[in-house]
UniProtKB/TrEMBL annotation:
Xref: PANTHER family: BLL5662 PROTEIN (PTHR39338:SF6), BLL5662 PROTEIN-RELATED (PTHR39338)
Source organism per UniProt: Nocardioides panacisoli
Residue ranges of every copy of the VWFA domain listed in the record: 193-357
Name recorded for this polypeptide: VWA domain-containing protein
């Protein structure tokens, strides 16, 4: 269909939703940027409208093909060549008689908006494909992750506005009034943080995601209320919680790297899971267990499935995080993933900061 002047914003917003449905991470900020860009270049110029969308809605090369497909289907036209130049914007003139403070403030606001937009794009990028500078910026963004430990009901009861009658407190309140009737006191079972256990695959196939996953684990340890435990799995099982208790994330990652002997090695998840259940089974009981791995198992997949099934029987929830799960066209055909899928409660992507934020929300609600 061809958009008309009337209801143009509705047509363009609908187009951005279609692009998001196709797998492009279109946020509200990107949508506003797109509407602003189209208003600047003019909706009548189809080539400029197309190029404005590529510039504002797409964050990586993989998004461009999906964007082109949706553009053709939505507007029922062929997408213009991507190399076609965008018509120049009208020149902007600055009144030099204005106060200098206002100009500086406007420039600072524009810079802040540009930085926020760049950070939002970076949140959705595949962490394994980032440059060194982008990885450094992403490391700073990990501080924005909201970590809330999951809660469980405790045996001890606490005062509450709703719940069962608390006879002892009610009686004491009555005695303080010399036996006169007092307000009835109530109580309910309190809540305590539930343990979170992270098992991080550090084999060769996961090398591009090892650093971000360790930064995620550091955030969980720092915000887990002392109830988080972290292990690396590859060819052997290594407990790294003590190293990640260091407050500085860079120092914590250096300390963790010093105690892990099997970086970028092979993958024997079945054997390491069996070792975990043999030695640290108590940590998994009633816990939320997060396994971060791509599932490229060199050992026996049946052994891995058996051990994850055992883990599922004693844990509160088992969450499997696969960095390839959020990529277009991914199918869980790896032997390890296919073997464990019947025994996990949630199967999530784990390739970007946005997916890590989603994981933290799943864990908090467990």
């Amino acid at each position: 269909m061809t958009p008309s002047t009337t209801g143009a914003d509705e047509v363009l917003v609908g187009f951005t939703r279609a692009v998001r449905s196709a797998g492009v991470p279109v946020t509200a900020d990107r949508t506003r940027a797109y509407l602003s860009a189209v208003a600047t270049v003019g909706l009548d110029d189809r080539a400029a409208t197309y190029t404005a969308g590529r510039a504002t809605l797409c964050g990586c090369p993989e998004d461009l093909e999906r964007y082109d497909r949706v553009f053709r289907e939505w507007f029922a036209v062929e997408a213009p060549p991507a190399t076609r130049p965008v018509p120049p914007r009208p020149a902007t003139y600055v009144d030099l008689t204005d106060e200098g403070d206002e100009g500086e403030g406007s420039g600072d606001a524009e810079a802040a908006r540009a930085a926020a937009s760049a950070d939002e794009v970076l949140r959705h990028r595949d962490v394994a494909a980032l440059s060194t500078a982008e990885r450094q910026r992403l490391a700073a963004l990990f501080a924005t992750l909201q970590v809330r430990p999951p809660l469980r009901r405790a045996a001890r009861r606490v005062p509450a506005r709703r719940g069962d009658i608390d006879p002892s407190r009610t009686l004491r309140a009555s005695l303080r009034q010399l036996g006169e009737p007092a307000e009835i006191r109530l109580r309910r079972r309190g809540r305590r943080p539930r343990r979170v256990v992270l098992l991080l695959d550090v084999s060769g196939s996961m090398s591009g995601y090892a650093d971000p996953l360790l930064r995620l684990a550091h955030r969980v340890v720092q915000g887990g209320g002392g109830r988080a435990e972290v292990f690396t799995v590859g060819t052997r099982l290594t407990h790294i919680t003590r190293a990640l208790r260091t407050r500085d994330p860079d120092a914590a990652l250096v300390a963790a790297g010093a105690v892990v002997p099997d970086w970028s090695g092979g993958t024997r998840l079945g054997e390491t899971m069996r070792a975990f259940l043999a030695r640290r089974r108590d940590l998994a009981r009633g816990a939320v267990v997060v396994i971060a791995s791509d599932g490229w198992e060199r050992g026996d997949p049946a052994l891995l499935a058996e051990q994850v099934a055992r883990l599922h029987r004693i844990a509160h929830r088992v969450v499997w995080v696969n960095p390839h799960g959020g990529k277009a066209g991914y199918q869980p055909v790896q032997r390890g993933v296919a073997a464990v899928l019947p025994h996990v409660d949630s199967f999530l992507a784990g390739h970007s900061l946005a997916t890590y934020a989603e994981l933290m929300e799943v864990v908090a609600r467990a």
